User: Fold this.
Amino acid sequence: MSDVRVAGVGLTPFGNTPERTSRDLFGEASIEAFADSGVERDDVDALLYGNFMGELSEHQGHHGPLMAEAAGVRAPATRYESACASSGVAIRDAVKRIRNGEEDVILVGGAERMTNLGTAGATEALAIAADDLWEVRAGMTFPGAYALMAQAYFAEYGGEHEDLAHIAVKNHENALTNEKAQYQSAIEVEDVLEAPQVSSPLGLYDSCPISDGAAAVVLTSEDYAEENDLDAPVAITGTGQGGDRMALHDREFLARSPAAREAGEEAYAEAGIDAGDVDVAEVHDCFTIAEVLAIEALDLEGVGEGISAARDGRTTADGETPINLSGGLKAKGHPVGATGASQIAEISKLLAGMHPNSEYVEDADTGVAHNAGGTVASATVHVLEVVE
Amino acid sequence: MSDSETGVQDAGFDDWIDAVEDDDAYYLECPNEHGSLPPRRVCPDCGSTDLEAVSLPETGEIETFTVTHVPTPAFEDDAPYATAIANFGPVRITGQVVGVDLEAIEPGLTVEIEISVSETTGERVLAFSPA
Assistant:
């Protein structure tokens, strides 16, 4: 089975740019990705594009061909929708297609325009990733759903809001040097604890921002990379996807993410690694509690132990396994359709020594990206390794 | 958007809300005794298509709850309000907690199911009140 190489990556700044259309954002990200890769647009065999709320935010469906046009690519193009894991599933499909030998070069990515909806509109748009009949109509919001998980976690394993606050502080600290991050500002534990409540126990600083942005990644087969003498030292060596029941109340566990565990086990097995081999990870921290559930599901922490990981320094930049060196969704931002591809971009740069925070993982050769959809009814995990 | 704005019912779900209003709440049970909520044609646990309506237990117990301060527009005038997941044995259900101070809600609280109304939209809302 051929390795799939990350030939180039591109990101727009993530942030508050309500006037920018998603075609504009993705066009920009793709220009950076092609320039980074050295791959010609004519060589692209397919575009796989993640987007979640385009119908609501831009009155736009059928994004595939629109985004191929925006990227200057003449290739069949398909939109992938899996809530906040939309471009994670697009990456996974691209990896499988290249491995199967069907295609050699795939442009994969995603974009989301959100801030033009305003806070109420974006809250409503995000809520449709939950069960409309049984959750949204009962007043559940997305922060509310993660708050239900946080309270369930505290009740089952212990911990308190202050533990979660350390995660937000850590991720803001990591974003200080990330020029693409929405927030490049340090915060203190007290700031998190004193912030306005969104859905108890989660406050404003436990929550990722509403963001606009795009990410693009050029993936190629190993053969193509060698034939074209590409500088592509990082490969995606494992891909996994897991699923769970749609409504949180229908899950076996309220304080664990089995879909992410399933995805992680599959990706680790494909790459022939285990959690002990992971040097660095980007995980889906849409809310502080989500990072806890993610690192436990990935076996980077034991069940019930992830809550203390940031507080005790195990996941900080200088810790044993740095988590979200990009700033994570919390500080880098979360344009939902772009997030999964942006995590692949961050890990690739970290492993290739091209990231502002690469100094913290100088000897790293294995990274993991974890992307979750909804309240983790969908999850993808990818293993990236330095192969050259 | 609720389909009730167009006068169209959500078969199964709106029928279930009607049943709760008539004090006749139920869940669906397959031959393997897996519980689930309508509308549903297939047991999500075992794939059985032989589903039967069974009376919901009179009371449930709150497992986890949150007080939401930033709602969707459909609940703008209702905030802050509490949303909880309550365990009724064969099924868990998500609903708003009514008839009790927000500070008095806690895991383990025994509740009954009822139908409340959104202050914002006037739409019916699935709710729990202390038993």
Chain B is about 5% helix and 35% strand. The beta strands of chain B are 26-29, 35-36, 52-55, 60-68, 81-87, 92-97, 110-117, 124-130. The mean pLDDT of chain B is 95.
